[in-house]
Amino acid sequence: MAGVVVIGGGAGGDAAALTLRQRGCTLPITLVSEERTLPCERPLLSKDLMRGERTEQQVGIRPPDAYERAGVDVRLGVRCVGIDPERRVAHMEDGDDLPYEWLVLATGSTARRLPGLPDAANLHTLRSLADAVALRRELHDGARLLVVGAGFLGCEVAASARIAGCRVTLCDVADGPMLAAIGPVAAAAFARLHAEHGVDVRMATGVEEWEVLDSRVTAARLTDGASIAVDAVLVAVGAEPNLALPRQLGLAIDSGGVAVDDRLGAGTGIVCVGDIAAVPYALYERRLRVEHWQTAQRHGEHAAGTIARASSESFTELPWFWSDQYEFQLTQAGSCDGADDVVVRGDEQSSRFSVVYLRRGRVVACIGVNDGVTVRRARRLISDAVEVRGAALADPASDIRALAATA
Ligand SMILES: Cc1cc2nc3c(=O)[nH]c(=O)nc-3n(C[C@H](O)[C@H](O)[C@H](O)COP(=O)(O)OP(=O)(O)OC[C@H]3O[C@@H](n4cnc5c(N)ncnc54)[C@H](O)[C@@H]3O)c2cc1C
Q: N or C, which end of the chain is more exposed by having fewer CB within 10 Å?
């Protein structure tokens, strides 16, 4: 009997499959994942697991028997290689054909690689649990780790590796860590933080040449002229959404992802969730493709509602993100893209402040450094698209919620 076939065992696919059952869906549900391990909490991979505070057995989204108990047939190590939308059949690499009434595409992203990277056993990217376990094995006390790419992932691993006792160099061609995502004020705070924790922070710097001996990188020559001896390398230069199946299906691609409708639908019997979905946001007057854990989970839950016909509501939840590095927690609500004004609340040299992004006088995003309270309160300002006055906003003693109420 044709049921629901979910392609992808990440945050979005897992949430879709399990929420469907919680909503009383009685159709057969199959969750197909190319990975050989059950869905795991990827955010734990660069943090708790990398710091050695959790083992690979302790990062699952759910207890291993949760899927069987929910009646979800999980197929691990299986790749979906094609879809026949006329016959409503998903083709697996192992020759299996899975008929579907509903198809959930939740194929996520793949770690990007740089051109000219050597094929070396100690050069890593990080996406899966297997990647994380392989990298973690190299992070022994005193190991020299070069992290190429100071985005969220690179910064988190740099912090975790320092805590694990490694000597860490962090380089990026951009002028500051996580600069494109969080802007120069917060980026400067994180550059200081990493330097204070003993990371050799080299911004506006890339890798010019690799030295390889016996299939291992031994050193990297950087564009600033330095030569860095290494025991391990992490290349963390972003991720590419896995769009092969949507492209094969002829689904419209926009803003870097599948152009879904406001209920995450992408054609008859097909929904798309997580990193691959470019969702229309009336608030931002455009589509947003978000690479965040909580957004992928919420997409999965929302898609389950769409399938179970329990909900015909639009997906409007604001992007929300967090990152833990040493004693700093970064939180972000909303999207900074297109902002035309920035207001800093508090002392940006301190360990607690927030940055509010505005567009045409309305708050569109808020980033907090150890200030999750302000970020949570700002969500209302963002989703209600309220106009606020800069002077009051800049005062960290003011309650940001009151600005929404009185504006
Ligand atoms: C190490 C790490 C740390 C992170 N930390 C944070 C954080 O702190 N906060 C935050 O908000 N976000 C974080 N993220 C991002 C977040 O994890 C992703 O945005 C989220 O996992 C996306 O979920 P998804 O379901 O779209 O895809 P994914 O989680 O990428 O899952 C996609 C799954 O689909 C499978 N797949 C792909 N193609 C096929 C196919 N053809 N057939 C079968 N299976 C297929 C893949 O193997 C994978 O299992 C982190 C990501 C990583 C890698």
A: N
Determine contact, residues 106/63, Cβ cutoff 8 Å: no
Q: In the prediction, which pLDDT does 337 show? A: 87
Q: Is 17 in the pocket of ligand 1 (CB under 6 A)?
A: no
Distance 6 CA to ligand 1 centre (A): 14
3-108+241-307 and 327-406 in the same fold: no
Ligand 1 mean position, distance from CA 41 (Å): 9
d(CA 367, CA 318): 13
Residue 41 Cβ inside 6 Å of ligand 1? The answer reads no
Q: What is the pLDDT of residue 407?
A: 42
Atom number of ligand 1 nearest to Cα 47: 3
Does the beta carbon of 293 lie inside 6 Å of ligand 1? Answer: yes
H or E stretch covering 176: none
The first and second tokens of residue 96, run together, are: 């299996």
Decide whether any atom of ligand 1 lies within 6 Å of the 154 Cβ: no
227-229 and 232-235 strand pairing: unpaired
Residue nearest to atom 51 of ligand 1 (CA): 42
- Ligand 1 center to 292 CA (angstroms): 9
Q: 42, 156, 247, 335: which to mutate for ligand 1, most atoms within 8 A of CB?
A: 42
> Do residues 12 and 106 touch, judged by C-beta distance below 8 A?
yes
CA 131 to chain centre: 16
CATH architecture of 327-406: 2-Layer Sandwich (3.30)
Domain edges within the chain = 3-108+241-307, 113-235, 327-406
Token match 């690499």: residue? 93
Q: Which CATH class is domain 113-235?
A: alpha beta
pTM for the model stands at 0.96
> What is the rounded distance in angstroms from the CA atom of residue 235 to the CA atom of residue 227?
17
Architecture of domain 3-108+241-307 in this structure: 3-Layer(bba) Sandwich (3.50)
What single string gives the DSSP state of each residue in 69-127? HHTEEEEET--EEEEETTTTEEEETTS-EEEEEEEEE---EEE---TT----TTEE--S
Tally Cβ neighbours within 10 Å of residue 121: 12
Residue-level pLDDT at 393: 87
pLDDT, position 234: 98
Cα distance between residue 256 and residue 7, in whole Å: 19
Instruction: Determine if ligand 1 sits within 6 Å of the CB of residue 108.
Output: yes
127 CB within 6 A, ligand 1: yes
Tell me how far the alpha carbon of residue 239 lies from the centroid of ligand 1, in angstroms: 10
